[in-house]
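Homework-ish question, so no full write-ups if that breaks the rules, but can someone show me the predicted structure for this set?
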Amino acid sequence: MTTLLIDNIGSLVTNDPTLDAGPLGVLRDAAVVVEDGRIAWYGSRSDAPAADTRLDAAGRAVIPGFVDSHAHLVFAGDRSEEFAARMSGTPYQAGGIRTTVTATRDATDATLKSTVTRLAAEAMRSGTTTLECKSGYGLTVEQELRSLQVAAEITDEVTFMGAHVVPPEYADTPDDYVDLVCTAMLDACAPAAKWVDVFCERGAFDVDQSRAILQAGIARGLQPRVHANQLGPGPGVQLAVECNAASADHVTHVSDADIAALAGSNTVATLLPAAEFSTRAAYPDGRRLIDAGVTVALSPDCNPGSSFTTNMPFCIAVAVREMHLTPDEAVWAATAGGARALRRDDVGHLAVGARADLALLDAPSHIHLAYRPGVPLVAAVLRNGEIVWQTNEVTS
Ligand code: NIG
Ligand code: FE
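A: Not a homework solution, just the prediction itself:
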């Protein structure tokens, strides 16, 4: 089996707590050896073993690839006018989702596939090597199943979100829609998904409806995650903890009791700074969550309504500037935190045997991800040890 030495790394983020080098386990003048798509060795470059091939990092910083645990990529249509109206004062409302539902239902399979492929490639070029993808703009049995099949073209982290909003045809009978989701829709869709998610929010699903949907998904082998407390205070975070959800996402409006529940649980709080940015909402206080002992992840929440970006470095910069995370905390949340939010231990960090998913930065350290907002610093991306994208400047 051919081995690859990534040599001359100026600064290597490992997220290895055993190195006694801070939470990010940062090594200077480091090297990594990759074998069979996995990390075989990492450490000081002066100790590096021989390998068959060599990639010169030329003093760049290298980090684990970003783990994006929250994306809604299966959609059609454009809501830029809604964004423009928001910037003139119109508030964001859950009901805007229905605009995308109409366009998605009308789209061909080929159109949906080309959109998810394009957006996944866009995410990868900004350093994302693991990506979750939700359904939720079909909202019929056939359309939700189709969305999951399209999502599976780009990832194994496929999430059923038939409970995104009540579709127009059930506007007067929302409980009938919940019954459909809990029976025929999940019967058809559960085999095509790994996760079940629900938008527990005013204007979407209340706590009893959300609990019923999550439990119906769990009964069919899916693992829960929850869109919680995005638009106002509510029961979503507590429901996520009650269900042992992998993640409560948004977590924008939280009480002390919500934070205490998260801190005492296995549920990650996934912060989505681009959603507050694009809806002109107040940012959650990430500092308060971290200081209370909550495990925090970051994700762009790419979707056509509240946050149309795939760019994790942008989220890191906003999380540092507006949510009061340190640069180290934000980079951890975008890598190891995302992995925790997907209950994965093979991505988001370096360890012998972990996936060789790495991003090389045109920067001397990971801090530049926040320090140089908006600058495309990702020079190369490796997934399973293969270079899947690089600028002209990275050479063997
Ligand atoms: O995560 N909150 C619910 N879902 C998306 C928004 C979807 C939309 O507006 O189309 C979100 O922000
Ligand atoms: Fe979302």
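Now go work out the reasoning yourself. Hint: The pocket of N-(iminomethyl)-L-glutamic acid (ligand 1) is lined by residues 72, 96-97, 100, 199, 227, 230, 275, 301, 303-307 (CB under 6 Å).
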